[in-house]
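Notebook p. 47: complex prediction with iron/sulfur cluster.
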Amino acid sequence: MRWNDKPYHSLDYELKKKYGEKVYKIALDAGMTCPNRDGTCGIRGCIFCSEGGSGDFAAKGTTIAMQLEQGKQYFHSKKIGTKFIAYFQSYTNTYAPVAKLEQIYREALDEPTVVGISIATRPDCLGRDVLSLLDRLNREYDDKFLWIELGLQTVHEQTAQLIRRGYPLPVFETALTQLHAISIPVIAHVILGLPGETKEMMLETCVYLAQKHISGIKLQLLHVLKNTDLAQIYEKKSFEILDFMEYIDIVISCLEVLPPDMVIHRVTGDGPRDLLIAPLWSLDKRRVLNALHQEMKRRGTWQSAVYAPKTIL
Ligand code: SF4
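Predicted complex, structure tokens below:
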């Protein structure tokens, strides 16, 4: 099975199919914080999270409209980009009074060149008032989309505690049910290579998600960034970072268990060059993508090759 020339159902393929052209993401920093940092769940954050709240590429600017304008200018200067996704990336983007959330989401949705918004958040930050706002906006802006991106990272409780995720798996399941009930597509964020996780454990996370009717997934290589607790653990050599071909092999196995209609939003990751400690091979994203495509071709495999709706490892 192929999606244009790719052996997996990429976001790029999906957006070109829907809009007839490439759609670019503008990462935004809405000035949020996170319960894992403000003392509600903890103060040091997830062990891998950078000081920028995992939004190190976000545009800077005082308002969402200004950040969007700045992002558009960047793409226009490269003579590309007429349609955009406003990506609320930094920190937890549903963790604020609902009036503020409504104002920032509307600011993005009202921009004519924005085809939809993607909101990165935690499943424990989707109270009834937030869900009701999302439901209302989803109906009102029926020509645009609202996506919610949930940072799951792993289904394994032991790892979740080690990385200080700050919520147990049933909280994710409840959020998923509630978002499905109001027809908001969910994208799950998964990290591959977390300390103590084997390939089988990573596959268990993907098999679990394959059964959950989520619309998309981000497979993110674990990055060790400066000034994180993960960096301290890494420097003590208490875990091994994935090497290049090991990562390619794991990504392929993950893609094989995912359903064909699940959109693959990411298969690697862009570590900010000035913060990245390891793995440095990930800086060459093109090489990673080329190797992934070539290896899938060599193996004659594709996304969903061993997917079964009731797969149990
Ligand atoms: S929940 Fe997100 S923003 Fe908060 S510490 Fe973890 S990764 Fe960072």
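Notes: The pocket of iron/sulfur cluster is lined by residues 34, 36-37, 45-46, 49, 53-54, 91-92, 122, 151 (CB under 6 Å). The mean pLDDT is 94.
Next step: compare against the earlier run before touching the bench.
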